[in-house]
Amino acid sequence: MEEDHTHITHDYNTSREKMVIPEYGRNIHKMVKHIITIEDREERNKAARTIITIMGNMNPHLRDINDFKHKLWDHLAIISDFKLDIDSPYKPPEISTLTEKPRPVEYNNYPIRYKHYGRILEQMIKAATQMEEGEHKESLISLIANHMKKCYLTWNRSQVTDDIIYDDLRELSGGKLDRGSEVKLSESRDILSRAKRRKAPRTYNPKHQKR
């Protein structure tokens, strides 16, 4: 005898109502939808506080964030589509702030002479040119030059001579910085070897396991 499946319905995600804040899950959304229908205000307030506690327990890693409780009450208002009439300890957010388009991000279109060195390194070179002569300036020039060599090798795996780095340093500084008496650059093979070790995946060795 064949079974009649005509009355069986399936609750697929595609047929369900879209969740406003999916991170809280469908059960929280159902709870909020339910307490909107509670007629007694005190019972409605009590139910809202219970839901806030549950929402907070779902995100214990956020408890140390400033205004954590405030955010939870804001989320409760948003999930209810601002239909939940309760005595909230915080003023609910304005609906207009949730629908307005974000402001366009302004980008600095500073020209970069050598893209493989980047804008930050050029700013470091500029700062070094303004320093007084001495040990600190020598140390900074050494740091900059070695970082330049590392950047160069990151973009171009072939060998690069120290003279190329010094020439670029001199050019980017407008002739104000040179190799200096104490500046020594790392060997290319050492820089590439360190980079290779950092990228290599670690393998499990049972002999190193602590007992």
Secondary-structure blueprint:
Layout: H1 25-35, H2 41-57, H3 68-79, H4 95-99, H5 119-129, H6 135-155, H7 162-172, H8 188-199
Helix pairs in contact: 1-2, 2-3, 5-6
Entry summary:
It is built from eight helices and no strands. The chain is an all-alpha fold and 211 residues long.
The end-to-end distance, rounded to whole angstroms, is 63 Å
Which bin fits the share of residues in helices? 40-55%
How many runs of DSSP E, i.e. beta strands?
0
Helices and strands: which structural class? mainly alpha
What is the typical, i.e. mean, pLDDT? 79
How many structural units, i.e. domains?
Answer: 2
The helix-strand sequence is HHHHHHHH
Flag low-confidence runs: 5-10, 203-211
What features would you describe in this structure?
- This protein has 211 residues and is an all-alpha fold.
- 47% of the residues lie in helices and 0% in strands.
- The protein contains eight helices and no strands.
- α1 runs antiparallel to α2, α2 (41-57) packs across α3 and α5 (119-129) packs antiparallel against α6.
- The N and C termini lie far apart (63 Å).
Highlighted features:
211 residues; mainly alpha; 2 domains; 47% helix; elongated; disordered C terminus
